[in-house]
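Translate structure to sequence.
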């Protein structure tokens, strides 16, 4: 009745009627909130009603947080933080033994644990130059390392530490088939570490690029099959791989090719003066395919057990060239067709477009304007320029549009974003954004086939856009509608982690993540966990000084519920989540032991710790997993050394009799009828065609078997006249029934909503 009258109101458009009912019209809301038509249009372009999903997913650098932020476009709703270089407690990352192996080892340098990461550039795996939705990589500028994230479960699987660099920046960027991931150093230093006085900067300090070999089948980087190229001590910067005609080549910018060393405290002009003195720096052009051959032929030098192609070898073999590029450049970005590269000079108002064909022609003809001090051939800039386009002040990074020849470039000094034609060399549109823009991101905008539609401006430290939250301001990602020539600003999203740097956006339908793990999976190795258990096989193993628990979690209990250990024991708790239902993640935390596990359905994770203080430590589930979540608990009992148990029997809190037992059994019998009717419905339709329902039915069957076990125990006790225990087991029988019914009803709802068909 209510609905009918509401519909009537809408269809007749009677404003006063809706006001009379207390509902507001769009006009009312616009007036009340001070919105104009443009605002409402922008809202309509981003608003995503409940249940609707986003068209693109973004993987954004979490900056100094060392994490990755995942959000949707156009809604700008945050979906996940992925722990990468720093712990992420909710996911148990850095808390369970399995992830600690990756994070602790990947954070250790010279015996020190580095507890942050300066993440800059995420990169998605590619097949033929297009995103394939399989893997994500991200670099750490501060502690040169690279992480591999598997998009099957959005978890970090590997961290490789760069064996020769002291800082980096030009990573991660992938080759068109993800054979290699590039990591270029930033500030020159002695390769491999160690002390060399600054006076020997020119002779002994070096830059480098590392080509990390990626094994796609294993989903891991193979350090033993990776190599680096030694470079002059110019501050190498951003990099990109060629594709299409330029496949096999990579490009790395530099700044401070002046090789200036500051020292303001001793009266020397500072770094920033000496590092921007010249009008040009150098773009490094590298034939990495040739590098791969040299590496395989062993024409390398070992530094810290890592193969490095020396500059002299690279020059002799014709794999390294330099091209001047305007003043303090930042991004170098290969066009989707692989024919051109755009380079932005921060201190130049132009973007320079280089032609790969012309570069190749110059190399083939041996036409060089000279050599740098290290003997690297320099290609004359004017021989290889396609266009120079005046875009505005402080151009930084470029991304590409779905339309041929169309690019977007961020203008740091102007606080603008330019849409331009790199074939013709003309500006199409410019839009003012907030300020402090660094990178920008177009949808799949660094691939062979960009998707267009939206651009995001990644702005730093949003002083005035949001409610103030203290001196440290949030970052600001601004969504821009780029589907028309004229761009429109749609939405400001504050991000409260670190400086955004770069982000990549992929069509959401390319991602097919798991909803659960196969039973007993170690998610970090993606293999069967050796300590996983099946229901009923839980156990505790003891050896002198060691206790190992092989337990399980399932609504709503942890098995075992009591763990008794002795002070000083080394304890390891392995827990397997036996559930199959998608949302049945359980947590496991032990009071005061820094133990927190996230156990998604099917996962096995472990926590090791020393029981160093006698006491009673409650443990419990940390996810609100069911009605009896709070009862999902247990005790770690750490007994003092030499403790002897007395045989005094514990006094029960409450004792139960026959009447309690009878009443409980009566309810259980009623409950069983409900379950039977749900089971009847499920089996009467084609439920086997619904994978999630099949999983739920398996879960429900488990629970029902447990219920049968508890019922048998209850009846045994009743037969012996022990109604206290008979009642408690009847209660447990009921708990299993409740869980069965809960799962069964979820399956039923799913089937009804999914249009299941009658089969009998
Ligand atoms: Cu421009 Cu690291 Cu790519 Cu920051 S970087 S903005
Ligand atoms: Cu399991 Cu709460």
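Result:
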């Amino acid at each position: 009745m209510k609905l009918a009258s509401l519909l009537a109101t809408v269809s007749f458009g009677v404003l006063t009627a809706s006001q009379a009912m207390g509902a507001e019209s769009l006009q009312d809301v616009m007036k009340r909130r001070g919105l104009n038509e443009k605002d409402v249009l922008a809202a309509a372009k981003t608003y995503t009603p409940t249940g609707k999903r986003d068209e693109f997913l973004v993987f954004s650098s979490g900056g100094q947080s060392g994490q990755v932020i995942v959000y949707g476009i156009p809604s700008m709703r945050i979906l996940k933080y992925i722990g990468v270089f720093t712990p992420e407690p909710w996911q148990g990352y850095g808390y369970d033994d399995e992830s600690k192996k990756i994070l602790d080892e990947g954070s250790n340098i010279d015996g020190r644990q580095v507890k942050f990461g300066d993440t800059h550039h995420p990169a998605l795996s590619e097949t033929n130059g297009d995103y394939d939705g399989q893997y994500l990589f991200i670099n750490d500028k501060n502690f040169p390392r690279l992480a591999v994230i598997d998009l099957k479960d959005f978890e970090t699987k590997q961290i490789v530490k760069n064996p020769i660099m002291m800082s980096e920046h030009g990573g991660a960027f992938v080759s068109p088939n993800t054979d290699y991931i590039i990591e270029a150093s930033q500030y020159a230093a002695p390769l491999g570490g160690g002390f060399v006085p600054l006076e020997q900067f020119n002779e002994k300090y070096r830059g480098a690029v590392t080509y990390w070999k990626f094994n796609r089948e294993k989903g891991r980087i193979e350090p033993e099959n990776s190599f680096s190229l030694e470079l002059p001590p110019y501050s190498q910067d951003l990099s990109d791989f060629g594709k299409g005609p330029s496949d096999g080549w990579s490009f790395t910018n530099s700044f401070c090719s002046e090789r200036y060393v500051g020292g303001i405290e001793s009266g020397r002009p500072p770094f920033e003066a000496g590092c921007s003195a010249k009008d040009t720096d150098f773009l490094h052009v590298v034939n990495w395919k040739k590098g791969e051959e040299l590496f395989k032929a062993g024409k390398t030098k070992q530094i810290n057990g890592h193969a490095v192609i020396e500059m002299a070898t690279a020059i002799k073999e014709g794999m390294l060239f330099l091209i001047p590029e305007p003043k303090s450049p930042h991004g170098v970005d290969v066009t989707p067709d692989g024919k051109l590269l755009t380079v932005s000079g921060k201190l130049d108002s132009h973007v320079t477009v280089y032609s790969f064909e012309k570069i190749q022609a110059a190399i083939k003809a041996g036409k060089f304007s000279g050599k740098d001090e290290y003997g690297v051939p320099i290609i004359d800039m004017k021989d290889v320029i396609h266009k120079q386009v005046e875009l505005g002040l402080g151009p930084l990074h470029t991304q590409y549009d779905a339309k041929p020849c169309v690019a977007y470039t961020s203008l740091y000094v102007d606080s603008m974003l330019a849409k331009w034609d790199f074939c013709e060399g003309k500006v199409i549109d410019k839009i003012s954004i907030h300020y402090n823009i660094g990178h920008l991101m177009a949808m799949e905008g660094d691939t062979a086939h960009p998707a267009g539609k939206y651009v995001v401006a990644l702005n730093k430290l949003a002083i005035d856009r949001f409610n103030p939250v203290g001196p440290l301001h949030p970052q600001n990602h601004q969504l821009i509608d780029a589907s028309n020539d004229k761009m429109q600003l749609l939405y400001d999203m504050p991000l409260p982690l670190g400086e955004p740097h770069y982000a990549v956006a992929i069509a959401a339908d390319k991602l097919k993540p798991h909803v659960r793990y196969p039973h007993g999976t170690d998610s970090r190795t993606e293999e069967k966990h050796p300590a996983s258990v099946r229901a009923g096989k839980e156990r505790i193993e003891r050896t002198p000084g060691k206790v190992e628990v092989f337990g399980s979690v399932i609504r709503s209990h942890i098995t075992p519920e009591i763990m008794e250990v002795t002070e000083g024991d080394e304890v390891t708790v392995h827990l397997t989540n036996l559930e199959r239902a998608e949302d049945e993640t359980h947590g496991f935390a032990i009071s005061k032991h820094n133990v927190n596990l996230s156990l998604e359905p099917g996962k096995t994770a472990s926590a090791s710790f020393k029981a160093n203080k006698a006491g009673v430590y409650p443990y419990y589930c940390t996810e609100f997993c069911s009605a009896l979540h709070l009862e999902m608990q247990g005790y770690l009992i750490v007994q003092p050394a030499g403790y002897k148990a007395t045989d005094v029997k514990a006094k029960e809190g409450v004792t139960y009799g026959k009447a309690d037992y009878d009443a409980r059994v009566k309810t259980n019998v009623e409950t069983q009828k409900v379950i039977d009717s749900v089971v009847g419905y499920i089996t009467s339709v084609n439920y086997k065609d619904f994978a999630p329902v099949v999983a739920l039915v398996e879960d429900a069957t488990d629970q029902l078997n447990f219920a049968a076990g508890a019922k048998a125990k209850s009846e045994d006790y009743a037969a012996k006249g022990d109604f206290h225990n008979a009642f408690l087991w009847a209660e447990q029988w009921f708990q299993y029934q409740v869980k069965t019914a809960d799962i069964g009803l979820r399956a039923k709802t799913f089937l009804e909503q999914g249009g299941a068909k009658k089969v009998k």
